[in-house]
From TrEMBL:
This is EAL domain, c-di-GMP-specific phosphodiesterase class I (Or its enzymatically inactive variant). The keyword Transmembrane helix applies. It holds the Pfam family EAL. GO terms for molecular function: cyclic-guanylate-specific phosphodiesterase activity. The chain crosses the membrane at residues 279-297, 309-327, 333-353, 596-615. Keywords: Membrane, Transmembrane, Transmembrane helix. PANTHER family: CYCLIC DI-GMP PHOSPHODIESTERASE PDEF, SIGNALING PROTEIN YKOW. InterPro entries: CHASE2, Cyclic-di-GMP_PDE-like, EAL_dom, EAL_sf, Rev_trsase/Diguanyl_cyclase. Residues 515-768 form the EAL domain.
Length: 772
């Protein structure tokens, strides 16, 4: 079939596909129809029409019924055949048009009785039909025996078939126009009564929409006795047969339950009064349905599919009824309807899948195409760069607008970008980043970005607010792998450096790769001891001895060597892993402090604590548990908190520092003087020490301004009961100045470079020995 479709010239590929799909569905339904799969449903549909189009009989066919009254009156079985002779004479005298018997006369009775009936048949003016039928020769035998009336009866009679053949489900739905018995073609009683010709074994459907109760019936015994109105039978076709239950000639039929065989014969004759209905089977409706299914398969929307399916179903049903009512052709409609259902269902599945795929490529908040749409876009080949526009202060802007209105702001923003010169589709790469491709070169991109930033200065009106939106841009060549992501990364770097835009360079990708590789190696480094601690000495300017140190983290990478803290600590903080690193440093410092205590060395250790950790209850619990477990003296432990840090929750940070202070841990304010809230922090935080930043200390002995700041800070701290550590000491003159202003501790390369735990212990021990 595929090759057949492919061989049709001048058909587009999509049309070929739809045509092939329709043919495959049609073939599948045809195979099922050939197997009789739909026959029960067709029977049910047919029965429904009998209810919808129920009508009375024409009155032309009437029944002389061998009923219970007749059985009681004659009171013997088989009936003597002179009874049939007298009924025949009465009917002929009444002027009936034809007389048909649905009574078995294939065996002889009393000769006189047989002769009387034969003479009545011979004398009748109306044609008389006697029954003939075939029956099985025995149980489970395929051989058929033909039953014919005895010779004395059939000499002047017509022979007509009364064979009834139920369907496999036991229901009688059809009758044959003729059969062969005794090697002679015989019409059925229905065909004989209606005067219809046809082929042997040609069957026709019985119209059970005809109301069997509307067929006139006359009791056999009443007719025999002349107790009837002859005028009511004049010109009529009568069929004589058994209706008494005890005679057992009864069959199941659609719509009416169980009917006597003679009534079924009468309904079959009534069916043939106007025309001979024929079976059109299922191929013709299926072919029409295939054409309609092809139209359904070309629908571009689910609503269109539903409308076309409804119209196609109605059209198919209408054609089916028209053929049934006006052309006497009974088609099987269910295979056609099944094909329409399958075609509509398949098309709905395809369209739903496409819609789901489309929805996957759309950002739900803004309605913009998303990263998936960007990754699957068609490459036109004329684009040079990706431009990423990153929304500055995204979180604050979203909070100001409200999440329900932020999508509207994004759409308004995109409209302004497109009007300003960003042609083509704009994609939402992530929450804060929009990206698009451009055929412009760099010389044209730079003024475009400057223009975009200028246009953004005009505020947006969203949800009753006037809001300004600032953008930072990144640019990357389209031929790079993950070019859009590189453009977004360039925008992030531009934002960090305070520039309006940045062009991605090749080495930035390698740097980012190395950074993220470090994040993947952090757990292994902590577990395998590659993360170590060194200690920078602090000189006590009162005792002139080293009795305190600052713990500094180092990463001895097995491939890259010793890594400086600035290369990994910011990344670890950004990825919320600083708690694990801090705990590792703290654990090592506490262990080293315990060993120093065993040697009789009194050395305090300061450990840096990120401000972000002061909002973590779990971190505080881990710290206190670790201090308690190691048994190191908590009063020799100092936590240094950077004064310039921004606490996520100041109240929670103060409460946590109070917990540390209550456990004996000292709190130091690091980098004092570089922040915006110095005095406020001095008031709020439970500190016991200030560390003056090196930018003020290293030139204080030669710069009058720095000297005044350092001196006043030391005085202020002492008045508040705080110790002071000055860092950044690099020469003797600076150290001498600190002594003159009564500073408590000095730290810097002039005092000592960072040392390992053992080397530091040896230096302190040597110093103690010299002092002794």
């Amino acid at each position: 079939m595929k090759h057949l479709i492919a061989s049709i010239p001048d058909i587009p590929d999509l049309l070929r596909l739809r045509l092939a799909g329709t043919l495959v569905l049609g073939l599948l339904v045809a195979l099922l129809a050939m197997a009789g799969t739909f026959r029960p449903i067709d029977n049910a549909a047919e029965q429904l029409t009998f209810s919808l189009f129920e009508r009375p009989a024409s009155g032309q066919v009437q029944i002389i019924e061998m009923d219970a009254a007749s059985m009681a009156a004659i009171n013997r079985w088989p009936w003597p055949r002179d009874h049939y002779a007298r009924v025949l004479e009465q009917l002929d005298a009444a002027g009936v048009r034809s007389i048909s018997f649905d009574v078995d006369f294939s065996s002889s009775s009393e000769p006189a009785q047989d002769a009387a009936l034969g003479e009545a048949i011979s004398a009748s003016n109306a044609p008389v039909a006697l029954p003939t039928f075939g029956q099985s020769a025995g149980f489970r035998e395929a051989r058929q025996l033909d039953a014919l009336p005895i010779a004395v009866l059939r000499e002047h009679a017509h022979l007509a078939s009364v064979s009834v053949a139920p369907d496999p489900d036991g229901f009688v739905r059809r009758m044959q126009l003729g059969t062969v018995t005794g090697s002679v073609a015989r019409p059925s009683i229905a065909a004989f009564v209606a005067g219809r010709a046809g082929s042997v074994n040609q069957s026709f459907p019985i119209d059970f929409a005809i109301n069997p109760g509307a067929i006139a019936r006359h009791s056999f015994i009443a007719v025999e006795r002349g107790e009837f109105d002859p005028a009511g039978l004049k010109g009529k076709d009568v069929i004589i047969g058994a209706t008494a239950i005890e005679l057992g000639d009864r069959y199941a039929v659609p719509h009416h339950g169980v009917l006597p065989g003679v009534v079924i014969q009468a309904l079959a004759a009534e069916t043939l009064v106007d025309a001979v209905p024929i079976y059109g089977s299922w191929p013709a409706p299926l072919l029409v349905a295939a054409l309609l299914a092809f139209l359904i398969g070309s629908a571009t929307g689910r609503r269109v599919v539903a409308v076309r399916f409804a119209l196609a179903g109605c059209l198919a049903a209408l054609l089916w009824l028209v053929a049934r009512l006006f052309a006497s052709t009974w088609f099987e409609i269910v295979p056609a309807l099944v094909l329409l259902v399958l075609a509509a269902g398949l098309r709905l599945v395809i369209l739903t899948a496409r819609e789901a795929q489309r929805q996957h490529r759309i950002d739900p908040e803004s309605g913009l195409p998303n990263k998936l749409a960007l990754d699957t876009r068609a490459d036109t080949g004329d684009q040079r760069y990706f431009v990423a526009a990153q929304i500055d202060d995204f979180d604050a802007l979203q909070l100001a607008v409200g999440k329900e209105s932020f999508g509207d702001l994004l759409r308004r923003l995109v409209e302004r970008l497109q009007v300003t010169g960003c042609a083509g589709s704009i994609y939402r790469l992530d929450n804060r980043t929009l990206v698009w491709s451009t055929p412009l070169d760099l010389a044209e991109i730079e003024p475009l970005l400057a223009g975009l930033r200028a246009v953004m200065r005009s505020p947006f009106e969203v949800a009753g607010r006037r809001l300004g939106v600032a953008l930072t841009f990144g640019v990357a060549p389209v031929d790079l792998i993950e070019a859009a992501a590189n453009a977004a990364h360039a925008a992030s770097l531009a934002k960090r450096s305070g520039k309006p835009w940045r062009l991605h360079s090749a080495d930035e990708g390698e740097t980012a790769t190395q950074q993220f590789s470090l994040m993947g190696e952090l757990d292994d480094a902590l577990r395998e001891g590659h993360i170590g601690v060194v200690y920078q000495p602090k000189l006590n300017l009162v005792t002139e001895r080293i009795d305190a140190v600052e713990a500094l983290v180092r990463w001895n990478h097995p491939v890259r060597g010793m890594l400086p803290p600035d290369s990994f600590i910011p990344l670890i903080e950004e990825h919320n892993r600083i708690d694990d690193l801090t705990i590792a440093v703290l654990a090592q410092a506490l262990e080293d402090m315990r060993i120093w205590c065993l040697r009789g060395l009194v050395i305090g250790v300061a450990v840096n604590i990120s401000a972000g950790l002061l909002a973590s209850e779990s971190f505080a619990n881990r710290v206190l548990a670790l201090v308690s477990r190691t048994g190191a003296p908590a009063h020799r432990l100092t936590f240094e908190v950077t004064e310039s840090a921004q606490f996520e929750d100041t109240g929670m940070a103060v409460a946590m520092l109070d917990r540390f202070r209550e456990s004996g841990i000292r709190i130091s304010m690091d980098d004092y003087g570089t922040g915006q809230s110095t005095l406020n922090y001095l008031k709020l935080l439970p500190i016991s020490e200030l560390k003056i930043d090196r930018m003020f200390v290293q030139h204080a002995h030669i710069d009058q301004g720095d000297a005044m700041l350092v001196r006043s800070t030391v005085q202020l701290a002492h008045e508040m009961g705080l110790k002071v550590v000055a860092e950044g000491i690099e020469d003797a003159a600076c150290l001498a100045f600190l002594r003159t202003i009564s500073c408590d501790y000095a730290q810097g390369y002039f005092i000592g470079r960072p040392l390992g735990a053992q080397d530091l212990a040896d230096r302190v021990a040597e110093q103690s020995a010299l002092a002794a």
